[in-house]
Batch of 2 targets.
Target 1
Amino acid sequence: NWNDLILSSGINAEYGIFWENLSPNGGGLPTGPLLAAIEAEFGSFDQFKAKMSAATIAVQGSGWGWLGVNPESKRLQIATCANQDPLHATTGLAPLLGIDVWEHAYYLQYKNVRPEYVNSIWNVVNWEDVAARYAKALS
């Protein structure tokens, strides 16, 4: 049925992006065109990080926080998706950075303290992968 198809495609797409978005050598700031776009859209990297963190932490139940790019306007947007709803299929945005807020993503280390998990994930974001996704989405 349709819901099973959405669930299966969402799981495959989202986790493929999620694991590539992370690196033990990650963290810090993005560079180049991605940083310029973040600063143009959100004012600064810190303002972007605060807005993305707040939106992600606020997801009710299970779901995802996303940084995506609108393929038509080429502008960055923050979005959230419930459960496994795929970002592109539900919003039209090309996914760049996803933060999984299903409890299985963080429960063993952070218990039910989602804000601590979301604030910590910035230390392992693979900005090279996010930047490559951004460049591909613009081409």
Target 2
Amino acid sequence: MPDTKAEEKQVANSLPFKNPDYVHSNVQNGKKKPWKTLKQILAQTPITSDDSITYSSLDAPPSFKPAKKYSDLSGLETTYTDPQTKLHYASPEEFQDIRRMPSDLIQGYLTLRRANNLLQ
């Protein structure tokens, strides 16, 4: 570490990207102030009111694109839905597997997808 201003300028001249006149923002009256942690900064800021906009209060507008559908068995993108069980499938083999499944297993797949329709 350079001890004098002349040594600092010499180092700065050897490093063209370093500004020799730069003054660190946390040095005041020759003393270094410690950095504040995020917890300290948050504790100092006033609590916002309910009508203010925060990151968690932002609502995105609805999408114009239709939601993508994925097969409940393989996870592949699909456009097919079994009308009897309402499960999505990507191939004829998956369709045969769906038709052979017991109703409690089908209900479990619908629950995983959050499509809790009771089968009749």
